[in-house]
Design brief:
The protein is of the alpha+beta class and 96 residues long. It is 35% helix and 18% strand. It is built from four helices and four strands; from the N terminus they run αβαβαβαβ. The chain has helices spanning 5-15, 22-30, 45-51, 64-70; strands spanning 17-20, 36-39, 57-59, 79-84. It has a four-stranded mixed sheet, sandwiched between helices. Helix 3 links the parallel strand 2 (36-39) and strand 3. The longest helix has 11 residues, at 5-15.
C-alpha cells in the first residue's frame, strides 16, 4: 500500500497536534513530546543533526515552501514535529 505523504500531512495538520518551525520542533524533541519529525529537503543540516537519533525522521522530498503549501500554511516549513497524529496515518509512514 502506497501512502500519499502530502495527504497524510494535510490530515495530521487538520486533526492532530503539530509544532511548526525549527525552534519549536527542537524543543518538542528535547522535551520528548514529538512522536515523529518531518524535515524538508532544504532543512539546515545543524537542525537535522540536533534531532537525528532522538525521534523517527521523515524526509519530505520537497523544499520548505512546498511543505508549507502542503500543510496549508503561507510560509516555508523546514521542520515540524508531530505531537499527536490525530486521524492521520503519519505513524505508518516509513521513517528514515
Amino acid at each position: 500500500m502506497d501512502i500519499d505523504l502530502n495527504k497524510v500531512l494535510r490530515n495530521v495538520v487538520k486533526t492532530g497536534t503539530v509544532f511548526i518551525g525549527s525552534k519549536q520542533t527542537i524543543k518538542a524533541v528535547d522535551n520528548q513530546k514529538a512522536k515523529v519529525v518531518i524535515l524538508s529537503s532544504n532543512c539546515p543540516k545543524d537542525i537535522e543533526d540536533r534531532i537525528a537519533g532522538k525521534v523517527p525522521l521523515i524526509n519530505y522530498p520537497g523544499i520548505g515552501i512546498e511543505l508549507g503549501t502542503t500543510c496549508d500554511k503561507p510560509f516555508s516549513i523546514a521542520a515540524m514535529a508531530v505531537i499527536e497524529p490525530g486521524e492521520s496515518d503519519i505513524m505508518a509512514v516509513k521513517a528514515q
